[in-house]
From TrEMBL:
The keyword Repressor does not apply. PROSITE patterns: HTH_LYSR. CDD domains: PBP2_LTTR_substrate (cd05466). GO terms for molecular function: DNA binding; DNA-binding transcription factor activity. The keyword Signal does not apply. SUPFAM superfamilies: Periplasmic binding protein-like II, Winged helix' DNA-binding domain. This is DNA-binding transcriptional regulator, LysR family. Keywords: DNA-binding, Transcription, Transcription regulation. Gene3D superfamilies: 3.40.190.290, Winged helix-like DNA-binding domain superfamily/Winged helix DNA-binding domain. Pfam families: HTH_1, LysR_substrate.
Amino acid sequence: MDWDDLRIFLAVARADSLSGAGRRLGIDASTVGRRIARLEAGLGAKLFVKTPQGYALAPEGERLLPHAETAEQALSVAAEALSGPGDLSGQLRIGAPDGCANYLLPQVCARLCEAHPGLELQIVALPRMFSLSRREADMAIAVSQPQAGRLVVQRLTDYRLHLAGHDDYLAAHPPIRDRSDLRAHRMIGYIPDMIFDRELDYMTETGVDFAQLTSNSVSVQMQAIRAGAGLGIVHDFAIPFHPGVRRLLTDQVSLTRSFWLVRYADDRRSQRMNRLADALGQGIRAEVARLETQLATLEASAERRT
């Protein structure tokens, strides 16, 4: 058994298909299939079971998986030992909910790329949980702390959310003095059955039963608010990107949530991954603080003008 066979085995196990593994590896699906068949013949064991959904691990494959992952990690650590500390380099895929991916990670990653020219960063913005065991991402940012799996979880920072609306909408609709007034307004929020984390269930904070305009994307919700479609709960750090959007009822509707950095447990042995995690965490903390401070400055300036 050689490492190249194990590399292909891991790709199929993570992609659940020959074609998906081939795309990750840069080879065609038929080659992947032949290599898996050769590995199974050499081991005298069936590693995968073909299902309507793709390729699932057979019991023998389940037993092989942790050993293959250990070999992968050992090779990575060995490569780091030979290359030395130096600048951070190579590819890193970061999974994040789209609010973080749209409003924080572009600036954070830009600074990381500037500091480390050999670094290739990929931002995967998806409104759902990421599977690190399947290597959908090397690290993931979550809005709640995972409770299961072989993971390392680090709390990054708190962030704040408030009710907000655009000046054009507010000028054309009844005034908002307290939460009871919200029932006369159109609300924007998440599609209820697509809320993938309980920490994203904001609507109860408003006292309104439901939202008339909904999306599973934070960015779509914010664009709807900016277009004057209604009111919604938004991240404070997103507001500076949208002139005309302002916070409302800040003393009555105020939420605090946290970002968590989630990593695969075995990556703790990698100094490169540890350094990347530290740099990413510091960058996100600094960017949340910068944008929330900018929002406070903008609001103070607007207050002085009125």
